[in-house]
Amino acid sequence: MIRGMEQHMEAKNQTTEFVMVGFATHPDWGLFVVFLSCYLIALTGNLLIIFVTMADAALHTPMYFFLRNLSFLEISYTSVTLPKILANLLSEDRTISFLGCATQMYFLLFLGGTECYLLAVMAYDRYVAICHPLHYPVLMNRRVYIRLAAASWLTNLLVLMGHIAAIFTLPFCGSNEINHFFCDVPPVMKLACGDTHRTEIAILLVALFFVLLPFTLILASYVRIISTILKMASAEGRQKTFSTCSSHLLVVTLFYGTACTMYLKPKSSHSPNSDKLIALLYSVVTPMLNPIIYSLRNKEVTGALRRLTEKNVLSTSLEVYVG
User: Fold this and answer.
1) Do 45 and 285 meet the contact criterion of CB atoms below 8 Å apart?
2) What's the gap between Cα 16 and its chain centre?
3) Which of 33, 183, 263, 308 gives 20 to 30 Å between its CA and that of 241?
4) Closest of 184, 189, 208 to residue 280, by C-alpha
5) pLDDT tens digit string along 32-82?
6) What DSSP string runs through 103-132?
7) CA distances, 137 to each of 14, 128, 129, 132, 144 (Å)
8) Which residue pairs from 294-298 have beta carbons closer than 8 angstroms and sit at least 24 positions apart in sequence?
9) For the CA atoms of the chain, what is the radius of gyration?
10) Long-range pairs for 102-105 at CB < 8 Å and ≥24 separation?
11) Facing residues of 177 across strands?
């Protein structure tokens, strides 16, 4: 099926592969070290969040279940782009096949769309916890939060197949150089020739569905959350309650700020340099910062990490003593 799609797409085009221009035209060890460091930090931080929230029984709650999903998603997201970027930084050959480009774009959009809805689900979880605390165990029981997480992952699974097919069945009859470091929608669309108006409208509609709709749900949740917090009599209570969702709010701001800038502006307003900078923020910087935000600003996570560290140190000391 995939091979048939590739043949169908290539049949309509003279282009059989793309060349990633990226940041440099020659191998660059300096950039390689920078991107490798970012990749390792993102992997280590997100794996640590997954391990800590699974190992500590006190963190077996819906909030941290969603956080584990988010960390796994960030690992997947960076792994779709950064290995290819690293390879290109050390090679003169920066080509990517037609199908390879389509596949990379599919997983980028799939994981990005999943993150949009997962962040909306996390906002709903905070809304229920803060606005309806007595009903929280019922409204957010195990079956509910597992289904909400599954829905976040499955919502855009098939929709994006048609979306990608619509983009890659456009005629690409000019240059095959993508002025970017991975196959993102705006730089690929710039290479299409002929009438792309219908495809651009379809892209905008999909972006509205995967970006604007969950953002509206997040906004509605936080309007109710802030309203509830402001009604609290104690300043300490307000501060403590807001601290439970401040990390999520910061992550939402980082992610949606860059996503809206990239996908909800018209094609004519895109420029290669600004697109690269924005793409760096949501594809590299945000996945690297998320675990730092959730660990430094979350006393439960830092406490769990400290307990696990002390437990391991104690176990090691006992083994040495007994040995």
Assistant:
1) no
2) 29
3) 308
4) 184
5) 999 999 999 999 999 999 999 998 888 899 999 999 999 999 999 999 999
6) HHHHHHHHHHHHHHHHHHHHHHHHHHHHH-
7) 58, 10, 9, 10, 10
8) 294/49, 294/67, 294/247, 294/251, 295/45, 295/48, 295/49, 297/243, 297/246, 297/247, 297/250, 298/247
9) 22
10) 102/5, 102/6, 102/9, 102/164, 102/167, 102/168, 102/183, 104/80, 104/182, 104/183, 105/164, 105/167, 105/183, 105/184, 105/185, 105/188
11) 19
Query: How does residue 108 score in pLDDT terms, banded at 50, 70 and 90?
Result: very high
d(CA 131, CA 15): 55
Please return the burial class of 14, using the count of CB atoms within 10 Å of its CB with bins 0-12, 13-18 and 19+.
exposed
155-178: per-residue pLDDT in tens? 888 788 888 988 998 888 878 889
User: What are the φ/ψ torsions at residue 178 (nearest 5 degrees)?
Assistant: -90, 115
| Strands (DSSP E) found in the chain | 17-20, 95-97, 177-178
The answer to whether the CB of 189 falls within 8 A of the CB of 200 is yes
Opening angle at CA 87, ends 186 and 20, nearest 5: 30
Determine contact, residues 85/22, Cβ cutoff 8 Å.
yes
| Tokens found for residue 106 | 């599919």
What's the CATH superfamily of 1-321? Rhodopsin 7-helix transmembrane proteins (1.20.1070.10)
The Cα 242–Cα 227 span in angstroms is 11
Amino acid identity at 73: L
Residue 188 forms beta bridges with which residues?
none
Sequence ranges of the domains in the chain: 1-321
Alpha-carbon gap, residue 295 to 44, rounded angstroms: 13
The CA-atom distances, in angstroms, between 293 and each of 140, 285, 302 are 24, 12, 11
